From TrEMBL:
Substrate binds at residues 9-16, 22-23, 61, 88-91, 99, 115-116, 184-185. It comes from Ascoidea rubescens DSM 1968. The active site is at 10 (tele-phosphohistidine intermediate), 88 (proton donor/acceptor). CDD domains: HP_PGM_like. This is Phosphoglycerate mutase.
Length: 249
């Protein structure tokens, strides 16, 4: 029996709109992001896909997107589970910085390394930085030694996979249709795990905001065909916009 996994990157956030590195900073959706979330739910409803359970990160922009999308899809009744392991990549000391200013500061090569390399994290954030998550109550029940102060995509995958293996996989193996609403890098990390693309290939893959990406998996949770977006044309345009971030002046 085919296992269905649906991934949705949150709609545009207030900091996406401002072209700032966000990471674990908790910001809300922009007006455009709210519309993208509504559209994600409409696309789900029109597709006939019916998620049985929802997973989100602990960040507001993913939670908002999930709630708005489920309301549009008439599935607000779903059981919901949240985990910090689905959070966006922690951008360390880059959090709160303007991407175009960071591009000028670091130069194109180092900027791309910090932003897109597989295994090179930015400098860590200090606990007293205004954009640090030190003392954030949403993580009170988590060992502070486990929580990151910077991450590469590889480190995102390392903290994501235990949750995938211990929690999410079991729902799929029980033939539940799973919806994950999370972030560009946590979803890219899961994409790499599922598809087996190389570190070089994943650096060029961009996931657009607010457009459901559907995986059909076999009993070993391997894709039986290429994943597909419910709105391919909009997804291509959205992915190009993500790729261009940092070039805005």
């Amino acid at each position: 029996m085919v296992k269905t996994l649906i991934l949705v990157r949150h709609g545009q956030s207030e900091w996406n709109e401002k072209n700032l590195f966000t990471g674990w900073v908790d910001v809300k959706l922009s007006p455009k992001g709210i519309e993208e979330a509504k559209n994600a739910g409409i696309l789900l409803k029109e597709s006939g896909l019916k998620p049985d359970i929802l997973y989100t990160s602990r960040l507001s922009r993913a939670i908002q997107t999930a709630n708005i999308a489920l309301e549009s899809a008439d599935r607000l009744f779903l059981d919901v589970k949240r985990s910090w392991r689905l959070n966006e990549r922690h951008y360390g000391d880059l959090q709160g910085k303007d991407k175009s200013e960071a591009l000028n500061q670091f130069g194109p090569e180092l900027f791309k390394t910090y932003r897109r390399s597989y295994d090179t994290p930015p400098p860590p954030i200090a606990d007293d930085n205004q954009f640090s998550q030190f003392g954030d109550e949403r993580y009170n029940n988590i060992d502070p030694n486990v929580l990151p102060k910077t991450e590469s995509l590889k480190l995102v995958i390392d903290r994501l996979l235990p949750y995938w293996q211990d929690e999410i996989s079991s729902q799929l193996l029980n033939n539940k249709t799973v919806l994950i609403v999370a972030h560009g890098n946590s979803l890219r990390g899961l994409y790499k795990h599922l598809t087996g693309v190389s570190a070089e290939e994943i650096s060029e893959i961009n996931i657009p905001t607010g457009i459901p990406l559907v995986f059909e998996l076999d009993d070993d949770l391997k894709p039986i065909k290429d994943a597909y977006y419910l709105d391919p044309e909009a997804a291509a345009a959205g992915a190009a916009a993500v790729a261009a971030q940092g070039q805005k002046k």
